[in-house]
Amino acid sequence: MAEAVHPAIAFGAVEKWYGTRDEPVHALARTDLAVADGEFLVLLGPSGCGKTTMLRMIGGLIEPSSGEIAIEGKSLWRNGQRQAQALSELGMVFQDANLFPWLSIEKNIALPLELKGVPAPERRARAAALMRLVGIEGFGKRWPRELSGGMRQRAAIARALSYEPRILLMDEPFGALDAMTREAMNMELQRIWLETRKTIVLVTHSIAEAVFLADRVVLLSPRPGRVDRIERIAFARPRMPDLQSSAEFQAIVRGLRHRLNEIGEEGSGHAR
Ligand SMILES: Nc1ncnc2c1ncn2[C@@H]1O[C@H](COP(=O)(O)OP(=O)(O)OP(=O)(O)O)[C@@H](O)[C@H]1O
Predict the structure, then answer these.
(1) CB of residue 224 inside a 6 A radius of ligand 1
(2) What is any Pfam family matched here (predicted)?
């Protein structure tokens, strides 16, 4: 397969300040980062280190204060205007599935297609294929409230994939789920990724989740948010849950936890 000409996502000297009523908040210091086409990148770090800010900037929901973000080589912003062309490459999944309660699961999944004017028979066929892909086949006529949290998250992933974005952005997608469902969802997400080969950027607070899923873990530190280190995770795929009890896996988790503790101490102790 030919190498993609552009990275899927490129940060060039991107910086973000938020204006507040008191002091401006320096949410992200000048950051350069390239995410390869088809890569699974995980953003990990303590509260307030800028993970969501980075994800929302990639998603075009907020504009960087300076620097440039390019999606597949196309600038996301030009003269303060978001470029729709670059945005169509992106799908988003949040912690809360955010399904419309008055629409069936099938209609929720097909909604982005309806908004795009895709005819009903094609929408139904696509929704059926996506429900198979995420493992909720047969639940299309149900209401969101009739599904478990894990199943609702599967539906949210199906909806984000419905218009075939090349990049999937996920902000703590499994943060609200119990530990067992979360582990099952990690396996499912890995399977979906192996089948679709999307570029994925996922935010998490869980070190084990990060190491289990990622090609690279980007560890961020706060005040201001910045990339502290990038850990390449080389385990072969598909990765099985037992991998997590291996010495190699635990060594990486330990290293990241150790660094996270140091970051915490630097933040609370000596002012810089
Ligand atoms: N809209 C906003 N206005 C002002 N400050 C903000 C805003 N959004 C985020 N911040 C600040 O920017 C910094 C980075 O926030 P961000 O939400 O990106 O961090 P995070 O790593 O995602 O945190 P968490 O893990 O708690 O979700 C924090 O200091 C936060 O208080």
Answers:
(1) no
(2) ABC_tran
Cα(35)–Cα(7) distance, integer angstroms: 6
DSSP 105-139: HHHHHHHHHHHTT--HHHHHHHHHHHHHHHT-TT-
* Ligand 1 near 206 CB (within 6 A): no
State the complex-level ipTM.
Answer: 0.97
CB of 49 closer than 6 angstroms to any ligand 1 atom: yes
Distance CA 93, CA 143 (A): 19
Cα torsion 207, 235, 2, 190: sign: negative
The reply to whether ligand 1 has any atom less than 6 angstroms from the CB of 48 is: yes
Mean pLDDT for 116-123 is: 92
Contact call for residues 131 and 81 (beta carbons, < 8 A):
no
Convert the pLDDT of each residue in 165-177 to its tens digit.
889 999 998 888 8
53 Cβ inside 6 Å of ligand 1: yes
φ, ψ at 29 (rounded to 5°):
-75, 160
Give the Å distance between the CA of 63 and the centre of ligand 1: 14
Query: Cβ(267) to ligand 1 under 6 A?
Result: no
Residue to mutate, 15, 47, 203, ligand 1, most ligand atoms under 8 Å from C-beta:
47
Average pLDDT for the chain: 91
In the chain, what is the straight-line distance between the N-terminal and C-terminal CA atoms, in Å?
47
